[in-house]
Amino acid sequence: MPELSHDATGVETPARYRMSNTSAFWLLSVALGLLLFASAAPSPMYPVYQQMWHYSALVSTGVYAANAIALLVTLLFAGSLSDHVGRRPVLIAAVILELAGTLAFAEAQSVAWLFTARIVQGIATGLATGAISATLIDLQPAESRLGALMTNVAAGGGLAVGAISSGLLVAYAPAPTRLVYWLLAAAFTVIVVGVLAIPETVRPDGLALASLKPKVSVPQPVRAAFVTLMPSIAATWALGGLYLALGGALMRVQFHLTSPLAGGLVVVALQGTSAVTAVLARDWTIDQALRRGPALLITGVSLALVGAATHSVWLFFAASVVAGIGFGPSFSGALRMLTGLSPAENRAEVVTAIYVVSYLALSIPAVLAGLSVQRFGLTTTTYVYGGIVIALEAIAMAGATRHTNTHTALAGHLCPAPCPGTVAPMPRVVSAHP
Question: Which end of the chain is less packed: N or C, by CB atoms within 10 Å?
């Protein structure tokens, strides 16, 4: 008879078929990276699709925004679902949906297929984001920040690797609009099998339906800091949206680089650098993150605009790297500050509000940029968009300079290190035992 073990749901499963916490942690880190890889993979292909089906830049940004909006809506309605039904069921559903979206991309025959695939992808990522982030916190070693760190690294790294890998395959491999998706489909099939073996960390509580009621609010102790930092949150994510939605077009129009690889490289310059910085700057204090991050991002965006104006692709890429160095600390500093100020029982609520602002900034400005490109051209749109990002970061930086010391002290008192920074403590979490 094989040895049996009880997971958090009370179901008996053979212990030999269950992953260790450490193995499950790294499997889910890879899964999160793959989800963001899949999200970035279409970016270098938009110019290819545009040539195939003769649609405008506005349609490209619309396809891109459909993903972010679907993700946002899913996060609002089902972001905490795994707290109530268990992690595994939500993760299995999310990965199966992601697999379906990937196959839709592989067989896309028209723009309608692209919209459908991006919406399904967004729903899958919205379901998985909260569940994976929470499970990484559940499974991380005691008194560790590894869960929050890997969430940042997997997200930024997945976007960067997805963009560059897709660009390489489109430029040099056969079946340029299909191969990357078939490879992803195979990877997600393996992930589904792996998720079946991870330990369950949440006991269902019967409140799943009640949890589907969306709620976005910020408790009183956090509101002043939230208003101060909201421009920075919006600026960082809007900049990421510009690179993902129009990076390939900018390379083609402004720098006359027609290879899809160029569109992937420009995303890597921003997001790849952001992922590396998340590791290197993990010991920065909140004060350091909120001062250095925006300053570097403002410098990088300013130099990128100079590069665009002078048609210097090398300056543009170097400036994007500088902006990427500032990108991660700008957002993670705001996240740490606001979750630190939040009472424990409201922390997940605050995180939801942060991501609402984030995904709105990721999608709506990109659509507006698409409209602007139609009327004013890509070059003018880029200058105005970059100027707005700089202005928002400057406003947030000025506000943070006035209030950081007070807010930081209070955040440290309410949530001493290591503060999770991603999910509220889970009172229903139990450890799987043999």
Answer: N
